[in-house]
Amino acid sequence: MLARFEACPDSSHPEDVLLSVKSDQNNLFYSDVQIRGYYPTYMDKVFADKDITIEMDPEDAKILKEGTVDFMSFSYYMSGVVGRTPSDESTGENIMGSQPNPHLEASEWGWPIDPVGLRTTLHKLYDRYQIPLFIVENGLGAEDVVEEDGSIHDQYRINYLREHIKQMEIAIEEGVDLMGYTPWGCIDLISAPTSEMSKRYGFIYVDQDDEGSGTLNRSKKDSFYWYKKLYDCFAI
Questions:
Q1: What is the CATH classification number for the domain harbouring 119?
Q2: Which of 6, 42, 159, 188 fits a disulfide with 200 by CB distance 3.0 to 4.6 angstroms?
Q3: Three-state SS annotation for the chain
Q4: What is annotated as the active site (predicted)?
Q5: pLDDT by residue (tens digit) across 104-136?
Q6: Do the domain assignments include residue 41?
């Protein structure tokens, strides 16, 4: 699985555009090897600058070429902005540490919300590799509030998922071979980047706080019923 980050140039300045290309290469290095079956030439200088030598036996190139994958799975949560001069407002809270995009809203944790960026990613990856794609992670981390009656109204999560799924549908209509989609995640769990339980992704709420206290009781959020209805529409 590739952790996919769509890199947008900060401006139309040629150096910003080039930086976005370089950022893309850094992100796609592993999938280039696993799908194309060889080390890309753009990494030669990177290895040389870092004094890294790839030692390969005579048969290794043949093994790489014959051992490619049949489809590509990847996660997508957000896009990022790269440029020559880091902004004072760089969103250090997000996993990319990217600059803020004035055209996008962001989550409570500073992750830009960019459904169209997912469609851009789908086109880029399919154009590059021409094999089926599978989105295996996509979702919104947010702090949920449990109402007095136990209900959890996470319309923000529903909105996030709906808009991203719409862009998937358009990408398929435009010719992308998208074989599947699984959101992150079905149930609340500790968020890996921040080690917080309060940053929740699930359709099912788990009663536990950041210190590990709680009953561990589970309850369905509004997004659970919305996604179940969506799933039922496509179930065969």
A1: 3.20.20.80
A2: 188
A3: CEEEEEEEECCCCHHHHHHHHHHHHHHHHHHHHHHHCCCCCHHHHHHHHCCCCCCCCCCHHHHHHHCCCCCEEEEEEEEEEECCCCCCCCCCCCCCCCECCCCCCECCCCCECCHHHHHHHHHHHHHHHCCCEEEEECCCCECCCCCCCCCCCCHHHHHHHHHHHHHHHHHHHCCCCEEEECCCCCECCCECCCCECCCECCCEEECCCCCCCCCCCEEECHHHHHHHHHHHHHCC
A4: 137 (nucleophile)
A5: 999 999 999 999 999 999 999 999 999 999 999
A6: yes
| Mean pLDDT computed over 85-112 | 74
Domain limits at 38? 2-186
Pick the closest to residue 186 from 234, 232, 233, 218 (CA basis).
218
From the number of C-beta atoms within 10 Å of its C-beta (0-12, 13-18, 19+), residue 133 rates as buried
